[in-house]
Specification:
alpha+beta; Immunoglobulin-like; 339 residues; 5-stranded antiparallel beta sheet; 2 domains; 14% helix
Amino acid sequence: MKTTHASFAFLRFLLAGSLLGSAAAVRAAAPAVSGDLKQWHKVTLTLDGPQARETDSAPNPFTDYRMDVTFTHESGSPSYKVPGYFAADGNAGETSADSGNQWRAHLSPDKSGKWTYRVSFTKGRNVAVDESVKGTAVNGCDGASGSFNIAPTDKGGRDFRAKGRLQYVGGHYLQFAGTKEYFLKAGADAPENFLAYRDFDGDFKTDGHKDNLVKDWKPHVRDWKPGDPIWQNGKGKGIIGALNYLASKGLNAVSFLTMNIKGDDQNVFPYVSYDDFTHLDVSRLDQWETVFEHAQRLGLFLHFKTQEAENQGLLDGGEVGPQRKLYYRELIARFGHHL
């Protein structure tokens, strides 16, 4: 079956917008910066923002709030405007929380040295997906700023954090920004429903849409190693073991769909349900992130396939509308920091 790959260039469509009304009042708190503060490592900015539930509609935490963070190196370059996202209680992969007041953005810094950040946080009907909407500032969040210091990476070997971000440099092959090595992809291009995994949160396993195709990855539980990531008291060993197996065979890539609604499998999607394209399952996406992080540490390139032939027209009738903009904005916000 053919798969079509949509570009993360859709981010340019996702500019801020506005709604009449007063600014949402939340308790002001300094954003927390966490993670390994090293070059090419994941750095996370978390702030206390509006309380929300992932199924709320008025306001919808995914479409009616827009959080963007501008990260700038002390030299002035690079500077990145990074979309943020609703993170429920901040630990949803473990707790299965669907509500909370934690909002996040991620960066994998290109350079060591001092970085500054500034938060833009607005509220308005469809402000996250409609560039004509201007929005009102969310008190206690909008304008928050600060800085942090980044040390050189301390990783080596296959770990992508030792090599840097893969970049297109005008030739046949991608190149690591740090080491300048060229990347020749050698990986499994299947199964496309890699993420149709029973240990992930969500009702996709019992919603009546090809539930028999959900995987347990049981043969690869034996490939999981002590110290490898898990969630919720032992879940995840099968899919983490599958990544270990690929790496042990010398492969350097893993391929997967992030949405196959109406496709051959129909069990992979970021939403709370099969038919709802405006509310995302925060805990399941948090668990996806655990898997993706492990893959990168093993030296596995993340080959995102964002749609397939059967669902090209699913969002907005195939056009670039609010549903498609939200889909790509959330993928970029949650996973765009990967190398």
